[in-house]
Amino acid sequence: MEKFKKRSKKGYVPGAPIYVGDTKAQKTKITVTDYNKDSIEIHEFTNPEDCRPFKSSATNTWVNISGLLDIDSVAKIGEIFGLHPLIVEDILDTEHRPKLDIFDDYLFITFKLYSYNKETRALTEEQLSLVLGENHVVTFQEKGSDLFSSIHKRLENPQSNMRKFGADYLVHALLDITVDSYFEVLEKIGDVVEDIESRIINKPSVDTLKEIHEVKREMIRLRKSIWPLREIISGLHRRISPLIQEQTLVYLKDIYDHTIQVMDTVETYRDILSGMLDLYMSTMSNKMNDVMKILTIFATIFIPLTFITGLYGMNFNPKISPFNMPELGWYFGYPFALAIMAAVAIGMLILFKRKKWF
Amino acid sequence: MEKFKKRSKKGYVPGAPIYVGDTKAQKTKITVTDYNKDSIEIHEFTNPEDCRPFKSSATNTWVNISGLLDIDSVAKIGEIFGLHPLIVEDILDTEHRPKLDIFDDYLFITFKLYSYNKETRALTEEQLSLVLGENHVVTFQEKGSDLFSSIHKRLENPQSNMRKFGADYLVHALLDITVDSYFEVLEKIGDVVEDIESRIINKPSVDTLKEIHEVKREMIRLRKSIWPLREIISGLHRRISPLIQEQTLVYLKDIYDHTIQVMDTVETYRDILSGMLDLYMSTMSNKMNDVMKILTIFATIFIPLTFITGLYGMNFNPKISPFNMPELGWYFGYPFALAIMAAVAIGMLILFKRKKWF
Amino acid sequence: MEKFKKRSKKGYVPGAPIYVGDTKAQKTKITVTDYNKDSIEIHEFTNPEDCRPFKSSATNTWVNISGLLDIDSVAKIGEIFGLHPLIVEDILDTEHRPKLDIFDDYLFITFKLYSYNKETRALTEEQLSLVLGENHVVTFQEKGSDLFSSIHKRLENPQSNMRKFGADYLVHALLDITVDSYFEVLEKIGDVVEDIESRIINKPSVDTLKEIHEVKREMIRLRKSIWPLREIISGLHRRISPLIQEQTLVYLKDIYDHTIQVMDTVETYRDILSGMLDLYMSTMSNKMNDVMKILTIFATIFIPLTFITGLYGMNFNPKISPFNMPELGWYFGYPFALAIMAAVAIGMLILFKRKKWF
Amino acid sequence: MEKFKKRSKKGYVPGAPIYVGDTKAQKTKITVTDYNKDSIEIHEFTNPEDCRPFKSSATNTWVNISGLLDIDSVAKIGEIFGLHPLIVEDILDTEHRPKLDIFDDYLFITFKLYSYNKETRALTEEQLSLVLGENHVVTFQEKGSDLFSSIHKRLENPQSNMRKFGADYLVHALLDITVDSYFEVLEKIGDVVEDIESRIINKPSVDTLKEIHEVKREMIRLRKSIWPLREIISGLHRRISPLIQEQTLVYLKDIYDHTIQVMDTVETYRDILSGMLDLYMSTMSNKMNDVMKILTIFATIFIPLTFITGLYGMNFNPKISPFNMPELGWYFGYPFALAIMAAVAIGMLILFKRKKWF
Amino acid sequence: MEKFKKRSKKGYVPGAPIYVGDTKAQKTKITVTDYNKDSIEIHEFTNPEDCRPFKSSATNTWVNISGLLDIDSVAKIGEIFGLHPLIVEDILDTEHRPKLDIFDDYLFITFKLYSYNKETRALTEEQLSLVLGENHVVTFQEKGSDLFSSIHKRLENPQSNMRKFGADYLVHALLDITVDSYFEVLEKIGDVVEDIESRIINKPSVDTLKEIHEVKREMIRLRKSIWPLREIISGLHRRISPLIQEQTLVYLKDIYDHTIQVMDTVETYRDILSGMLDLYMSTMSNKMNDVMKILTIFATIFIPLTFITGLYGMNFNPKISPFNMPELGWYFGYPFALAIMAAVAIGMLILFKRKKWF
Fold first, then answer.
1. Are the beta carbons of B257 and C224 separated by less than 8 Å?
2. What's the pLDDT at B1?
3. Which residues of C, range 129-168, sit inside 8 Å of D by Cβ?
4. Considering only residues 208 to 247 of chain E, which have any Cβ-Cβ distance to chain A shorter than 8 Å?
5. Model-level pTM?
6. Taking the C-alpha atoms of A323, A328, A329 and A334 in order, what is their torsion angle to the nearest 10 degrees?
7. Which residue of B has its CA nearest to C15?
8. Is the dihedral of CA A239, A240, A242, A248 positive or negative?
9. What tens digit of pLDDT does each residue of D37-84 get?
């Protein structure tokens, strides 16, 4: 097995297969589903060569390669299904931007699937590449997650559209699952956003700020994937490659609408998060100001009182002259001083209250 | 009745009817209004099958389904009027983005109606879906609010345009009511905005901030609905489907102008709210600063006074040497100390006043 | 006379004339100016019917309706000049967005005129609607301000282009006056902006902030009117309706250039106002910080001094032991304490000065 | 000579020549340069009539009018070269937005030249208008600055392209000088920007803020001129009026590239200035915070010390009971009190240091 | 050798070769690589004239000029390969904006290469200009860095596409290396961004702010180069000049996708950096506020304590009257005063804790 080279290595030869994904990804597994209106067969292979006969069969064939670690197998599959070397390179480049390439005899689509863990707040990304040829679909899953089981179930139902329509409908079904997974992710993130919002109002903390920042970054990530996905689906719907049949277009229009809705939701969340940041900043600043104001008012009230105590703490001798702090010699001198202090404190409190300072 | 599935459930089969709205919505009610220039008949049905004869009648027919809880009935209506399963799915998906779908024999439009309660500041949303076919209109109301009574009144007037024009004019009337409801909502929100603004200037508080934040979010929500509505009406006006008659176009242009005006108003409110946020922040900050400044100046004036009292509170013994606080032995020592304090305080007040610090 | 209904009343019949403007506006007055190269006649009517003969006269006719209170008269004029009911509705809707509607036999334009009072800083708006038909122009002024006297003067001059050119040139002249009034308004607002700016630098106050906020809002209002006006004039210049003659196009291009310049100025003012807001905030914050810093430094210098006075105010008895505040017994004890205080104060002043804290 | 009317005067007749520029501008001077491949002649005239014979000469003619005070002469020149009255008006309106007007027999271009004085930081603007006709170019300089001497030098060189190419190449040369002057201005402003930036880092002050604000405003001004200039040059390059020869296009493309680069630089400076504003605000705020923090820490350390001095300044009589401040009677009472104070002060310093508060 | 003139010198003659780059750049070196399917020859020349025979050879020729100091040689090369004088000028103008010029018999492309030093955080720029003619490519390297060695290696491999395809594939290879160098730069900057981010959370300082500011400026610089590069590659891919062969288009589409990805990354970094700036500001402000709050609370607790010590420091004589500070005469007077102080302090601590002030 070749050594993995970094995508950014200068001077690599374009079209040479280089895998840049996570090396701990699952072992490569090949599943071939061969079906038509009447029958369905599922095979699991380890040798890519076993797929070759299915390429030109009259039935619809779905070849799923899950796990891209074994780049020789991927290259072999590419060779069997007649893919351009640059396409094989793109399949292995799991950081690739979602895109649609149209060739004379096949379409190539690559895009991202997301899942979101609400506990860890981790947004996991998986690249899915897909080739639609005459009567066959080849899919390349980066991590081989258990995503396609629902499609298998629908394929097993002989009444399903999947069986009646061609390979292009299978592509539609895969894209549909993908867009639905975006809805799922956004729903979970929406819960997180609501949770953050309620905490901003009830007990804002610095961590809230970091959370807002993190969700914002996830929105940037999602947005980067959804924009090109929208273009891909729009492209499929518009540029009728003969591989896309007329009857599938209405279904593609439907996913297109959903993609727009995903986009809208992402943009709305971004707007809401920006608003929340403002709200957080103001709430924190208001809270801080309130604390400071009350403390300052408290301190301010004691300032003249302490001055008075200082005054009567001076050592001028009342015996020398009647002008020297005569209060010290009064019978009610101390109560008088206390009364003045109380009057000053109460007066200030009333004044501050009237000015609505607290 | 089927169990409701969440919209984001992965692997649902596209085109299967799933209702995602509020389950407490009203019971489904079917109202059929059959009219032409000369006569008008209104029927209330519970069985969708009763609508079937009206589909191909020569008169104009308006079928209104209010309340989408009974998804079997909705599916049945869909089947009777020949709707694509994806359309029935969209009708039941009450979170759907407003859109226009053009089919050979019918148009499908879905959009949102809003109402605003100024007391509770609640913006309520209701989805309205609408199918325009040859000589008939089918409307699906999510909550069955009493919105269409004015249209019924106009229909009962034999001189009204409604009676003279075709089914497409009815669609125009429905869209017109919708856009007018936006004006109503914006007018009420405008009052709220003005109210908030006057409070910012007179007595800003943290609640004002939350209110601005809430109105901003409602603007985001409205905007999300109005943008696609504008596209829908522009689409109706432009792409002359044979179902839209020439004479209706000028009326559609009129609603289009109103939609633009609604958009403009929403954008203006957003601009104004942003400006208000700035104004609020500055006003609060200025107020806080004023309080702090006055308190600080107050404290600052007492600092040297307290220092002086401390000075004459020191226990240096004037008896030991003539240099040890001779003032304590003066005849006018205490008045002298008080005079110095008064001079310092007044001097500082004058200084601060000159520097325009208060 | 009908009762006025609010624009946002749900369920009003489209095309029914409803006046939404200020009810205290002037009484409706009809002025008919009939002119050609050789002669000019001016009539004042109160009965709209009197205008009818002028519609199909070979001479150019300008019918000006000033004051829209009497909606029956407006509706009558609309009927005489063959206007669509929706157009009559738009004429009376004085809150309408500026727009251009093109019909087979006439053009309809509605837009806003502004005037600005520098003393009260009030931006006054007046709607002007305008119909250009074959050989006639009908104008509807909301408030009947004395705007058109200069046009009348030019019309009375037989050498003027107004007399030589057709009715479309009159439309150009009206639009030209309008755009010029924008220049006038912007010039006045420009003076206000400069005045605010000089005050920000010299003596910023909270009122300055409110003024910036107000001028910003006026810019939002102006912008909302000028954008569609630009589209209108661009439309007139581009889509050569046969009602616009070839020779007028160069004049329309000229107004178009002016509109762009108005737009540019509005955008520039917005940019400048945003910059001023930043400048204001920073200036205020700097000022506040300077005050606080000086006060804090002042307080800080007294802190150790007051501590020293406290120290020598303690009641430890020097008689008990030679370690108990021996300074109190020194001959130069008091001057020594004063010297220490002076040294501390001067030392701190030097330190703060060196650190450039004031 | 006519009285100057303000541009914004309502009701002026379009096409009437009104000069709105600086009235102290230089006297009008007419320079006629007549040249072809073989010869060159330069004339200075004061009477516009003297230019008339050059209009239809077979040689290339460049008529330069410098100083627009004498509007009669400008109007006369306009008449001689067959300019539309609106064009003459635009030439005299020195506040006009840059634009290109295409007529059948001539092109009209108006734009701004800038120069920047690094000492006074003054950005000076001069309007240049230009008419390209068959074999002649007429230029109108607002202030008659010594801008064109380099062009004269190149014209005097018989080997120069200027002599070999037609009048359109002269227009190119004038535009080229203009765009180069923008580079020069931006280079100088770039120096100012760098100077401001280095001062923000080394010793920020309120003046720095005002300087940033001023340079930002100059960027807004430049931008307002360069955007339309870009459109003009793009227009010249695209819409091949027969007055622009094929061989000149590559030169126009070259200036177009330079204009884009000027635009880029202006936008980059705006971005950089915004970043600098943020940096300034943060630096100032950090500096202020540092000062306040140190002062506050200093004050905080003295607070418990002063409390202790207050404690032992209380007048409880140790003679009454052994519980009444027995420390006052201790042999080492005073050193003990001092030791406690020192311990508190050092303890707090260590604590604050550990918390990394200074 | 001519003296270098500044690019912004007014009045320079367009098309005259002026070098504006760094004068310390390497000596000009000419490398000619002549190859076809079967053979490859590499020559190093110093005299530009030696290249002339290769221009019209049937084999593919790559002429690389590295170092642009010797402008005579560059001009000579320009003359040999028939370049327009403006193109030679653009080659020498190393500050030129990236662009693509299409001529009948050659294409001219100029763009920037970047390298980034993570230690010094220096972003180094080098201009590369490139001429694609019939069977030959001429490249002009500003600084002659060792960039092309990997291309030479691939050329030496007779199995490589480089040898099989034409000169246009060589252009593709050069652009591919360039875009890869952007990836490398962005990867390094990405490390820096992550490093800054982790420091913001752990120990933010004023330097962090300056670093964010610097990386932001580098993003502005990169963006300025990548936008036009995207246009160039899009142009090559779209406008099929006959010099670009059909088979190269798929490779150009591939680089185009990479350029979009670079753009996306730059924009994402800009968004992230803006978010980081907000985070930094809030973190700093929170930290500062926390310090201030704790210090203020600490000071506030001592204020009433110090007041009490002041109180009992007053010199009212208990002997004169029983109302004069009787506590001074109590047996447990001092412990009583201490107890009150402790109670006040503890009470305040509890209160502040309950209000969650610390």
1. no
2. 27
3. 149-151, 153-154, 160-161
4. none
5. 0.80
6. 140
7. B251
8. positive
9. 888 999 998 888 988 988 888 899 999 998 888 888 899 999 999 999
